[in-house]
Amino acid sequence: GWEGDEQWAPMIPGFPGRLSWARFLGSAIDYIVFDGSDDKHIESVTFVEVKSGESSLSAQERHLRDAVQAGNVRWVEHRVDREP
User: Structure pTM?
Assistant: First the structure.
């Protein structure tokens, strides 16, 4: 198997998105895929957790999955302005 080599996942057939759309995080979730980012027109965002064999989601991964599936996702624009 290739367990532990999550960074290879976007190159394996069946990955949900293009390699150029995928951003590896490795913690909390393995990938975020920005569908359409090549064209600078993102149409969707996909969270991807890579597993192999009989491995299962951790408690944190299950909580993240449940939050996303429940629609508990938000956008925040955090602006930091320099002082004059």
Answer: 0.80
